[in-house]
C-alpha cells in the first residue's frame, strides 16, 4: 500500500495550480513510464513491439480494479468523448433522458446519434441549475425512456451525482455515466451503471490520449457497435473476409490503441489503486473544506455544494458580475491557475495541493477583498 503522503509526493507541478478539472499535470509515475516507453520504442530491441502490445491488457486490468467491471468488458479509448459516441450511437431505440446543461461531450453525443441513426430521441431533463438528481429523473421518466446519460460530477457546478440513487429510480433502463470529472478521486459504485466512460487527462493525471469505455453485460447485449473496426472482431488478424463484431467491449474499437498512452494510463491508475480512491477522496475533501473556509473568510460567494456527499474536488466561486474580473485578476496576479468562466471561477483541488498553493490563494483573496 502507498500512503497518501507518498501519493502526494508524486505531484510535480508548481505551486498555484488549481485546475485539475481541466487538465491534471502528469504525475511522477506517469512521466517515468512515458520516458521509459519512448526509450524502448526508440531503440526497439528484439521483442519490444510485441511486449508493448501487452499494455492493452495491463491498462484494462487497472481500469477493472477501479471500476469493478470485468476486464473483458472494458475497451481502451483515446478520450472520453469517443466512448460517449460509441455508447450513444449504439442505442437501439426510445428516448435518452439527459440535461442540456451537461458538458457538450455528452449532449453532442446524444444529438449526433439521433441525427445520424434516427433511432433515439434526446429528451431534455429539467434540473436544479444543472444538478441531476434521482428525484428529478423519477418525475420525468416515461415509458419510452430507454436510457439516461449523466455526468458523475457536473463540470460547471461541481455537483457529485448520486448514481446509486439514480439506478434505483430508473430501473432497468440503461445508465450511461461520463465519469471524467470524478474518476480516480470520487469513491462511487460504478458497477450500478451500464456504461462508464472517462478520460485520463484530468484527475488521473495520465495525459491526453487516454480513456476507456466500460460496459455491463446488459449494455453489451443492447448496444450496437456502430463504429467497429477490424480489431473489434476478435483476436487475431482477419484477412479476406469481414466478420461480425465481437460479443464484448472490444467490439467498440476502431483500430489498435497507442500502447504508450495505455502504459501512461495504467501507471496512473495503478498508483491510484495502491493508495485507494477512498483515501484520495478524503484528502481532497479536507482541502475543499479549507478552500471554502478561505472563500468565506474573504466573502467570496461559493456557489458549489458544501455537503461532502454532493461534491468531489471542485469549488465554484460566483461573485457579482462586476466583481468577477477583479477576482480573476487577483488570481492571475498571484499565480493561481484556475478556470475562469463568464459568470464564475472554478477551483479544482487534488490530494497533492500544497500549503504554498493555499497561501497563494489566500493572497489572491486578500487582494480581491481589498479591491472589491
Query: Would you identify the regions where 5 or more consecutive residues have pLDDT less than 50?
Result: none
Element string (H = helix, E = strand): HHHHEHEHEHEHEEEHHHEHEEH
Mean of residue pLDDT values:
96
For the largest beta-sheet, the strand count, sense and barrel status come to: 7 strands, mixed
What is the general shape? globular
Specify the number of helices.
13
Helix share, percent: 40-55%
Record the strand order, biggest sheet. Answer: 1-7-6-5-4-2-3
Briefly note the structural class of the backbone: alpha/beta
User: What is the radius of gyration computed over CA atoms, rounded to a whole number of angstroms?
Assistant: 21 Å
Distance between the termini: 47 Å
By DSSP, the count of extended strands is 10
* Share of β-strand residues: 5-15%
In short:
With 372 residues, the protein is of the alpha/beta class. The protein has 13 helices and 10 strands. The strands form 2 sheets. The chain has a 7-stranded mixed sheet with strand order 1-7-6-5-4-2-3, with helices on both faces. The chain has a 3-stranded antiparallel sheet with strand order 8-10-9, covered by helices on one side.
Explain the overall architecture.
- The protein has 372 residues and is of the alpha/beta class.
- It contains 13 helices and 10 strands.
- The protein has helices at 4-8, 28-43, 48-52, 55-67, 80-90, 104-117, 134-140, 163-170, 217-222, 259-275, 277-297, 321-333, 355-371; strands spanning 74-76, 94-99, 120-125, 145-151, 174-178, 195-199, 211-215, 314-317, 339-340, 345-348.
- It has a 7-stranded mixed β-sheet with strand order 1-7-6-5-4-2-3, sandwiched between helices. Strands 8-10-9 form a 3-stranded antiparallel β-sheet, covered by helices on one side.
- Strand 9 and strand 10 (345-348) form a beta hairpin.
- Helix 11 runs parallel beside helix 13 (355-371).
- The radius of gyration is 21 Å and the shape is globular.
- It starts with a helix and ends with a helix.
Amino acid at each position: 500500500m502507498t500512503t497518501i503522503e507518498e501519493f502526494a509526493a508524486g505531484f510535480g507541478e508548481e505551486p498555484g495550480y488549481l485546475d485539475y478539472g481541466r487538465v491534471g499535470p502528469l504525475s511522477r509515475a506517469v512521466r517515468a513510464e512515458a520516458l521509459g516507453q519512448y526509450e524502448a520504442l526508440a531503440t526497439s530491441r528484439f521483442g519490444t513491439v510485441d511486449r508493448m502490445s501487452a499494455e492493452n491488457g495491463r491498462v484494462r486490468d487497472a481500469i477493472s480494479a477501479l471500476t469493478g467491471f470485468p476486464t473483458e468488458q472494458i475497451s481502451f479509448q483515446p478520450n472520453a468523448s469517443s466512448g460517449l459516441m460509441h455508447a450513444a450511437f449504439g442505442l437501439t431505440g426510445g428516448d435518452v433522458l439527459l440535461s442540456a446543461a451537461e458538458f457538450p461531450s455528452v449532449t453532442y453525443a446524444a444529438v449526433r446519434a439521433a441525427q445520424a441513426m434516427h433511432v433515439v430521441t434526446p429528451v431534455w431533463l429539467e434540473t436544479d441549475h444543472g444538478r441531476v438528481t434521482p428525484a428529478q429523473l423519477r418525475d420525468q421518466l416515461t415509458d419510452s425512456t430507454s436510457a439516461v446519460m449523466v455526468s458523475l460530477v457536473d463540470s460547471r457546478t461541481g455537483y457529485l451525482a448520486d448514481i446509486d440513487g439514480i439506478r434505483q429510480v430508473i430501473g432497468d433502463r440503461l445508465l450511461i455515466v461520463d465519469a471524467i470529472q470524478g474518476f480516480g478521486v470520487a469513491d462511487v459504485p460504478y458497477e450500478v451503471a451500464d456504461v462508464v466512460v472517462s478520460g485520463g487527462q484530468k484527475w488521473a493525471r495520465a495525459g491526453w490520449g487516454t480513456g476507456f469505455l466500460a460496459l455491463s453485460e446488459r449494455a453489451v447485449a443492447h448496444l450496437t457497435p456502430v463504429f467497429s473496426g477490424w480489431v473489434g472482431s476478435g483476436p487475431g488478424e482477419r484477412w479476406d473476409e469481414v466478420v461480425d463484431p465481437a460479443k464484448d467491449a472490444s467490439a467498440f474499437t476502431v483500430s489498435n490503441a497507442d500502447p504508450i498512452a495505455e502504459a501512461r494510463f495504467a501507471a496512473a491508475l495503478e498508483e491510484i489503486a495502491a493508495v485507494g480512491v477512498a483515501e484520495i477522496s478524503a484528502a481532497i475533501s479536507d482541502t475543499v473544506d479549507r478552500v471554502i473556509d478561505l472563500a468565506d473568510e474573504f466573502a467570496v460567494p461559493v456557489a458549489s455544494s458544501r455537503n461532502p456527499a454532493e461534491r468531489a474536488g471542485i469549488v465554484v466561486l460566483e461573485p457579482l458580475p462586476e466583481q468577477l474580473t477583479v477576482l480573476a485578476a487577483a488570481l492571475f496576479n498571484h499565480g493561481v491557475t484556475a478556470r475562469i468562466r463568464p459568470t464564475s471561477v472554478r477551483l479544482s483541488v487534488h490530494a497533492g495541493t500544497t500549503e504554498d498553493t493555499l497561501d497563494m490563494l489566500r493572497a489572491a483573496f486578500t487582494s480581491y477583498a481589498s479591491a472589491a
